[in-house]
Design goal:
Pfam families: ICMT. It is a single chain. The protein is mainly α. The protein contains 12 helices and 4 strands, in the order E-H-H-E-H-H-H-H-H-H-H-E-E-H-H-H. The protein has helices spanning 22-25, 33-36, 89-114, 116-128, 131-148, 154-177, 183-206, 224-244, 258-280, 303-318, 322-351, 353-361; strands spanning 5-9, 44-48, 282-283, 287-288. The chain has a two-stranded antiparallel sheet.
Length: 371
């Protein structure tokens, strides 16, 4: 179908009126027809197939044409001023550390994925390690978390814990080494025992594995985005540690690992006594009735979170992975620091001056003499 264009030209002397052939009127756009009826006399519109533009030079010839009116937004656009950004030396250092760790993690992940030895070891891991069982447990755990959420039975909780621990310790060790042995296998059972300490204390005090009903104000949670970021950081850090350290058969055993076992025992000791003292001065283990100032609470205000950080550090030390240890400690301190800050606000509202006096005595939240 041929296109039709309109061009405005000075009116000829012998044509004072507008006339269009009938064959051309059918090709005009329908909304244009009412406008043509209001064109003043003395203006000539020519409709030709070879015109490629519509010249709007004589605009004063159309004083009565109704142009569409587009209302402007009532709310002005927000102004952006560079001076509003406040950058302190601490913020610059923190952003630099985050950027450096992100670049290091990205480069390490790319080099691992592009390495042919990684895929060779992964294929060996499928043979010498029950990878199909780990994948199946991971799929079922994701189903439980997304669909069932808090309505998990004891069997479902056990599967979720076993799957999470396997993908933090056993699976990375099997993929990095081609088979499972040594410290990854040992830390698989250490992680399981570490997480079951809370269940054992709960069973000992309340004769029940599940958490009873409690006041929802004590359910202090950080945003979902922070939780997802922390879970991803923990998973990435453990996989980095598995590939950063030497081969498992090259790690010396015997008395050389005595310090690591001492660190593991200190982690379990801190975890157990933190939960035990917290349960003695609270109801349902999660609803405190007094300010706990005994046991590990004499050194840090949140020893339960500190024990988790110590466990991550012990795993990285055993695998000889210092950069992964630093990455996990920074990520854990950032996440648990925000969560501890939110919990302390609730504690101040509940106990008032008693908790402020405790914070003045114990100045460190997670790491003694550091943070």
């Amino acid at each position: 179908m041929a296109t039709v264009s309109l061009s405005l030209r000075p009116p000829p002397l012998h044509s004072p009126r507008l006339s269009l052939p009938k064959s051309h009127k059918s090709h005009l756009h329908p909304p244009l027809l009412p406008f043509l009826s209001k064109v003043p006399s003395g203006t000539c519109l020519s409709v030709r197939h070879f015109n490629k533009h519509l010249a709007f030079t004589p605009l004063r010839a159309f004083p009565s044409l109704p142009f569409p009116f587009v209302p402007l937004p009532s709310n002005p656009l927000p102004s952006f001023n560079v001076q509003d950004i406040s950058l302190t030396p601490y913020t610059i250092v923190k952003l630099s550390v985050y950027l450096s760790l992100l670049v290091f993690a990205t480069k390490t992940a790319i080099s691992i994925v592009l390495s042919p030895f990684f895929w060779a070891k992964l294929s060996f891991a499928w043979i010498f390690y029950p990878m199909i069982i780990s994948v199946s447990l991971a799929c079922y755990s994701l189903y439980c978390i997304t669909r069932k959420k808090k309505h998990l039975s004891l069997l479902d909780q056990s599967i979720v814990i076993t799957s999470a621990v396997a993908w933090l310790t056993a699976v990375p060790g099997a993929c990095s080494n081609g088979f499972l042995e040594g410290w990854p296998l040992a830390f698989f059972f250490i992680y399981i025992y570490f997480l079951l300490l809370e269940f054992s204390v709960r069973k000992r005090l309340y004769r029940d594995w599940s958490i009873p009903n409690y006041d929802p104000k004590w359910n202090v949670c950080v945003p979902k985005s922070h939780q997802l970021w922390f879970a991803s950081s923990v998973l990435i850090g453990h996989w980095m540690a598995a590939f950063e350290g030497p081969k498992l058969e090259l790690i010396s055993g015997g008395w050389a690992n005595l310090g690591i076992w001492a660190l593991v025992l200190m982690v379990l000791f801190t975890r157990y006594h933190s939960i035990l003292y917290l349960s003695k001065y609270s109801e349902n283990v999660v609803e405190p009735k007094a300010v706990v100032q005994f046991g590990p609470y004499r050194w840090v205000r949140h020893p339960v979170y500190a024990s988790i950080m110590m466990l991550f550090a012990a795993n990285c030390v055993a695998l000889r992975a210092p950069m992964s240890c630093l990455f996990l400690l920074v990520a854990s301190a950032t996440y648990y620091g925000k969560k501890a800050q939110a919990e302390e606000k609730v504690m101040v509202e509940e106990f008032g001056e008693k908790y402020t006096e405790y914070t003045s005595k114990v100045k460190y939240r997670l790491i003694p003499f550091v943070y």
